[in-house]
Design brief:
Blueprint: E1 2-5, E2 10-14, E3 21-24, H1 27-48, E4 64-68, H2 72-84, E5 88-90, H3 98-105, E6 109-112, H4 121-128, E7 136-140, H5 145-153, E8 158-161, H6 166-180, E9 188-191, E10 194-197, E11 202-205, E12 208-211, H7 214-225, H8 233-242, H9 249-265, E13 273-275, E14 279-281
Parallel strand pairs: 4-5, 4-6, 6-7, 7-8
Antiparallel strand pairs: 1-2, 2-3, 9-10, 10-11, 11-12, 13-14
Length: 282
């Protein structure tokens, strides 16, 4: 289904070639809908970038981003946005010797302003390109064609003007990270001898395997990521809704029962435990 947003904020959904349904919505609703859609895109891209290590519950390798911005309000706003979306963030206040800081910290991606107190962002970008191929996004109030051209010529990967749309910025970051650091090998989570294969939607135990539906995979993903903790039914339902899997409380019970049947079929009896009036835990 396509979504088309015009200047008058008319949103048209095209479910097929024949029926066309048009809705008039205000700017807030459009922004919320786009943010939710792009959050899912970000989630999928972020999962593709996971690196995992052996032992216990395997964890994602956090993508480290660096913000090079001299304006405290904008710097803190960006840092809050990125941290809340799962990134590790470095946002130095002192930009003296910033190129050496970049070299020492080795960020996966850099958000760079053009107008800096000690040097221009263009010069900083050119110096970084001597030793690093990390994606660089210019986030700046400079909006001329020449500014954008210079950013491209000097090694920038994207050019976003202030005030920026947070959903578009997050999507651009996820896209550049995915392109710069493609996943290698199979993506897995492990706990208690069970292996959850995120790429194939399978769970394995020893030589036995079981195929999972999309809902079942996302439920197990949430439980694996919170292994050892009690996950309330409300938290699981909210996680599924955040990923556009609209499951209510009754449907969650059905999915949990089906997952338990599949787990038992491969030798994982009582793998998911129920905590009375609290939720579930591995």
């Amino acid at each position: 289904m396509g979504i088309c947003v015009g200047e008058d904020m008319e949103v048209k959904a095209y479910p097929g070639r024949n029926d066309i349904i048009a809705y008039k919505v205000n700017r807030l609703l459009v922004t919320a809908a786009m943010t939710e859609l792009l959050r899912v895109i970000y989630y999928d891209a972020h999962c593709c970038l996971c690196r995992r290590t052996g032992g216990g519950t395997e964890t994602d390798m956090e993508q480290k981003l660096m913000i090079i911005e001299d304006e405290p309000l904008i710097r803190n706003e960006l840092r809050t946005l990125l941290v809340s979306n799962g990134y590790e963030v470095s946002a130095p206040e002192d930009l003296t010797g910033i190129v050496e800081q970049v070299k020492a910290e080795e960020p996966h991606l850099i958000l760079l302003d053009i107008k800096l107190p000690h040097d221009s962002g263009f010069s900083v970008c050119a110096q970084i390109r001597v030793f690093s191929n990390a994606p660089i996004i210019f986030v700046t109030s400079c909006s001329t064609d020449m500014d954008e051209l210079n950013s491209i010529m000097l090694g920038g990967d994207a050019f976003i003007t202030k005030p920026y749309n947070t959903a578009i910025l997050l999507a651009r970051i996820a896209s550049l990270l995915k392109r710069a650091y493609p996943a290698h090998g199979s993506e897995q989570l492990k706990y208690g001898g069970a292996v959850l294969h995120l790429d194939s939607g399978m769970i394995a135990y020893g030589e036995q395997k079981a195929e999972l539906t999309k809902n079942e995979l996302k439920i197990l993903y949430y439980l694996f990521k919170n292994a050892g903790k009690i996950c309330s039914r409300g938290d699981i339902v909210e996680f599924l809704w955040d990923n556009q899997l609209y499951v209510d409380d009754n449907a969650l019970s059905v999915n949990i029962n089906r997952i338990r049947e599949k787990l038992a079929g491969i030798g994982l009896e009582n793998f998911i435990k129920t905590r009375h009036r609290q939720g579930y835990t591995l």
